[in-house]
Amino acid sequence: MEAPVEETPEMSRRAIAGTVVAALIATAIGIVLSYVIHWFPAQASTQAHNTDRLYHVLVIASVPIFVLVVTVILFSVWHFRMKPGQELQDGPPIHGNTRLEVFWTAIPAMILLSLVSYSFVVLHDNEKKPAGPEMVVEVTGQQFAWSYSYPSSVTGGAPLNTTQLYVPENESVYFAIHSKDVIHAFWIPAFRLQIDAVPGITTHYRATPDRLGSYPVVCNLLCGVGHSLMRSTIHVVTPEQFQAWLQRQTSAPASAS
Ligand SMILES: [Cu+2]
What angle, rounded to 10 degrees, do the helices at 9-36 and 46-79 form? Predict the structure, then answer.
C-alpha cells in the first residue's frame, strides 16, 4: 500500500492560492458573460432600463457568491479527500465555531437586505405616477385575443375600440387590464412588464415607451387551447404619428382592425 503523503504548509498555501485564482477567473467569466450575450429583447421603455439594471446588479452580486460556495465545496472535496491509509480514521470532532457562524449569518443578511431594498426602489419607481400627462389604454383579454380601448380622454370624442395597439413615445401609458373569461397575463417583453388579466377586477401597470418600433405583446398564462396564438403587437410611434393613427381610426371605424 502507498504510504500517506504528509502535506507541507507550503503545499497547502499553493493549493489555496491556485483555488483563489481559479475562483476569480470563474467570477470574471460569469459577469462578462452576463454582459456580452444579449439575453433579453430590446429595451423599449424606461421601466425596461430600470429592470435590466436591477438584473445586472443581482447578477454581479450573485456570481461571486455562487463561485465562492462552489469553490469551497470543490476545494474541500479535493483537498480533504481520504488518502490511502486513512480508511479507518474518523474526522476531527468539531462542535461549532460561534464567531464563524455569526459572521456567515450577518454578512448574507446584510447582502440580502440591501438587494431587497434596491429591488423595492426599482419596482416602486416603475409603478410611480409620472409628473407629466398620462394616457390610459383599456386592455381586454378574451380567449384568445387582446383588444384595446382608447377612452375619450385620449380620442377627444367617442372611445375607440380596436385590436391595434399604438402608443406615443415618451409619454406614460396607464394600461388598465381586464379579462372577459379566464385569467390571462398581459406581457410586453420589450417593456419588461407583465400582470395578470383577471375576470372581475382591473389590474394595471404603467410604462413610458422610449424606443420607436413594434414589439410583441404576449399572453403569458396558459388560458386554453388557443393560448399560444394569443399575441398582439405594440407600436411605439412619434406623438405626430400617434395622432395621425388616431385620426384615421376615428374617421374610418370600419377599418379599425
Ligand atoms: Cu393565454
Answer: 160
